[in-house]
Amino acid sequence: VENLAGGCIVRKASFVSFRAIGKQVFLWEHTAGDSATAAPVTTAPPPPSTSLAIQLPESVARNGVSVFESADKQYLSVCIVTAAKTVHRFCYKLDPVLNFADAARDEVAFAMTSLPLQTSISSVCWLDECNVVVGGDNGAVLAINVGLSIFGHSASSFHEVPLTDHSVLQWVWEGLGFQPTNKPQPIIAIAAVPDLVDDDSASSDTLVVTLSADLVLRVWSYEHQSCLCNQSLRPHLELAAAAADLAVLHFIPSSTDVRVLVHASSVTHPSKNEIVLLRGDLTSKVLDLDVVRRYVVPAAAARLVDFVVVGPSSTSSQQLVSVWRSVAEDFVYVFPISRTGPKSYYLDRLFAPNRFSAECIRHALSAASTAVSGAALRRLALEAVHRECQDQARREKQTDANAVRVAVWLQLLQKCTKLWAVENIPLGVASIQGSLVLLRRNHTSILFPSTRAIIATTGSSSSSVHHDDDELSALITPFFASFSHRDVRAAVLCEWNVDLHVDLTSPSLLDTLRRELQRGLVHTNQGKSLPTLLARVAPILAGDATAQSAVLTALVDNLALLDASSSSSSPSSSATAAPPSSTDLSLALHRMGAVVVHDMLAATYAALGFLSFLDDAQPSFVAPATLQHISTALLPRGLALLRKWVFYQWLFDQPSSPDTPAMLVQAFARHDDDNDDVQLNLATAVLDLLHKVHDLPALASYVHATRQHDVVRVVVRYALQHPTDPDDDGAVTMYLTRLLGDALVAEAVVAYELNHERRHITHILARAVRSYITVLELEHRSTTTAAATSQLYEITGHLKETAPRPYAAKFILQLLHASLVFHCSDDVTGATEFIWYNVFKLALTERLYDEAHVALHHVVARANSATVDECVRHFVLQLCDAGRVDVVVGFTWGALDAKVEDVLQWQAANTHANLTIKRASQSAVSVLRLLYSFLVKRARFAAAAQAMHALFVRLEPDAFHVDVLRVQRDALLAATNVLALVPASQNRWFIHQEPKTTNRTTDPLRVVTASDLRRELLIVRGKLKLVGSSAAALAGQSGSEVVSLLLKHLTPDGTMATNVALAVAIARAIDMDVKVVVRAVARDFAYSSGTESLLQALLRHAHSPDAYLAAVDTLLQSHAPLPTWLTDAAVAAGPLTAVALLRLYLDHGVLDEAVALAIDHLVPKDLSQPAFQQAAAADTSPKHWMPYELLDKLLGACDTVGGDDVAPLQHNATRLKQRLAEYFQYVHVVDAAASIRRQHERRPTASSISSTTTSSTPMTWSTN
């Protein structure tokens, strides 16, 4: 037997199953449906709602997994023992449902130390969630207690207690130096011994049985920590192999003896496919089990997988379900389990109800104590029979134990019968005021009058009519007695149970009666004797219509024993009273009352059957007027009487409570008797009992006090349909209707606990609410407004306390809506405020937000400010937790807008800004986002921007995680965008209050503008770029630090340009000098810690002459070579950048680069003829500005330098001088030409022009 799967029911609502496969344990949770409507085993189960896989270090030991629900139903324990000798316990919370998440789990693991290293675990048995018994392959038995710190409530612990076997003298032989000849056998099965159901002993010891491979059953005690006794089961199990490999033990709960199912098998030898039922004595002192039955499976070569006993504890309906597997297919066999053996049979006969008295049994057992009764007396009888069996077996030397046991039980039963007969020997009879008393030896029997005699005392009709109806009743009652009335009774029961079932319809009682009559006449022998009956009835109805109607009316009147017309026959108060009644006498009165009710019901069935036959057959001897009287008057009244006697018959069959043998009517009569006496006239006493039961309001009140809600419902339903007090002013009806509503709510609670269908529970609660509405209507009509309000308070409170929680809100809402009709808006009792306040709360529970919104406005109109504030806060937070932000934003709050905003502001200020909080109302992030949406919807853009900025500030201390930074970025983006929606005519800013500090007593205020938001947004974007490199240091970093980190941690990839641009943007936004950034990057580049591409990208995005000069200056200071692109870009950055660059060269003594810069960029190069002509024709001098002072300084520095290694420098200096000389000569010529042009333009004469023309000779540019 491999127990690799199992499960348990959790909170009566779900089924948690497990499967152990290798090193994993898989758990599934399924919804547990109603057992009455459960699907067949051949259909697929519903898909699991949740699942889990537990990974273990080693495979699970045999039977090593069990699942338990805690006693307080707060968590589920998964208990595991592995083959590696480790014990694991996993606990999962059940509040409100099973949660397999890591946050709702607690676990503990311990390693065993008491088992040797070479010992393997062969069997495991979990007693409960904290105690486990482990068996080893060396025969060792270990008791382990595993305590777990259940979510911090208790300290974890682990205790191991080895159990020793003192039943053999092994320790003696080992002490003398002898080794045991038999090797210890492995433990192959372990089971806990259940307590007897009726066992009320004070012993608290826990017994465990183990079955070893040699088929020896041992009983172990937790209290003694040792083996107490053992028994070999090899003769009973009939196993061919020398040792068993697999076995299973399963105890069947019983109130009288111990019964255990055993199966053992061997791998090497084929075993019988059977499960053996053993029964006998198993205590701490005695172990004696015998075979009672063998459940044999006919399948060949099958192996048992598992078996279980299902059904209630009553053994008459228990079944053994076993699963077997063969090579070809799988089998499922179901065997009924019933009581067997003489002990159960004779014990049930001995203690059968009303069989023997306790005194008789004690006398038969020769018991000294007279106080022993109940379970103690049963145990005393078992012990006496057991001793007598042992004595007779020893005296007579009989080997058949069963025969001896049967003989002893027969002797005890015969002795009890003899003693009971002797005690009940009649000795005489006496009469006490007309009542007969039979005097026995030790008892007194009262002879009650017959039903006919009791009815005869209440008759009021004339003697002739009375004689005729008696004769008629005597004829028809035996005739219709054999007819079946099952359908008629079922139809009446349907009328009572319409409140419980949705699809239940009550058939016509008259039609049902006619079908029963037709079936009886056709399918029974009574139909053949019908002509005889009519022949005998015809003379009785021989008169005219008046006489016939009188006889038939008297026949029906005799059935109305408890109607108002017969109230005059009720017992008078002047009757002589006897001493206080005893329990035996009240039981006798109850039984006699039940007999009277049964006889009246039989007479009613017969009378209705006869009248229905006359109405259908219309015999010729019945006058038409009589038939009309039957159809219009007698049949309706007869059906009402039929309902009454069916009700009273059902009522007399009801017990007082499930735990007591007393009957309901008996207990009510004793409780209702103020003088605690009965009448000596027994007929009057029986009538008195019936009249007490006829007081249905008092009966309903008593049954309601005993909490028998199913009985209350039927009694109240019948009382409301058949009122007995014509002078009722509505108070009794109102009281009964309230009881009906309470009973229906209790029925709904029972249906909910039994997992009935939802529509079934809904139907019952709808009927209950309908009853409560009727109560409120009656209260409103007949009493004051204050009383009606008090009734409303009581009913609402009762529903809140008792109705099933998933259904309560819906039906209380129905009640409150209906009650608004009875309470005007200007009432002074506060009922309207109470109604709307509860409608608001319950509508929120049902997530009916529109209805809750309407109710809230009604509460605002009637309640004080504190209540309104509490309702608004509750509403808003409930919507937050439900994720219904659209409702908060979209509702028209009207005058409550300010309160909603205040609630959100306060909640945001007093909750944590943590992104991992699941409840939205407890997260400042969610609340501020909701506040933002709320304000945007109302076009309050500046306030909305302020809310998003507040979210950014709240997250600033935790701004080192990417998720937090993204939330900050989104908040600033939203604030920037929404602030842009503010009209230009208004101020686009808001006030931010700085947090308090220790050295500051006031809270300074700061104006936040759009530029501030953009600056903070740029910094957050920079932090997002740095999350992967220095995330822990980002919180609280300033903008300059972010720029530095950005430039420090950038890599030459595709995003470098974007990041550099971001760094430059941040620097400009925080008014930071870009030259500082450039110098830092240039310095890194100079010392080979930075890249040239980074410097180039930075300068390109800065695009400032000062930035280029700062980079050159830094490189020169660091004595680093200047890249060509840097000098070219610096010169191209501005018209005067070359001059500033020359000055830097001179400051740092870089003459080669300075001379090259002067030649290339400071001295003009274009001295061509077109340039000369253009310059000469210009009105102004074409002089090019040059830094003469710097050039003189440069040339002077070059002249002072000497040596062979400066030859290139001297060469370049000579070139510079030549270029300067050429430029100066060029400028001089251009000035002269321009001067001549201007002179000619002032005096334009012909002679001058001709002379100039004739004297001019062609020349080239080189000659000038």
UniProtKB/TrEMBL annotation:
Subcellular location, principal: nucleus
Boundaries of every NUP160 middle TPR domain copy: 808-981
Composition bias type Low complexity, residue spans: 1245-1264
Hydrolase as UniProt keyword: no
GO cellular component term, pick one: nuclear pore
Domain Nucleoporin Nup120/160 beta-propeller: residue ranges: 48-338, 344-450
Domain NUP160 C-terminal TPR span(s) in chain numbering: 1100-1231
UniProt GO molecular function: structural constituent of nuclear pore
Leader peptide range in chain numbering: none
Protein name: Uncharacterized protein
Provenance organism: Aphanomyces astaci
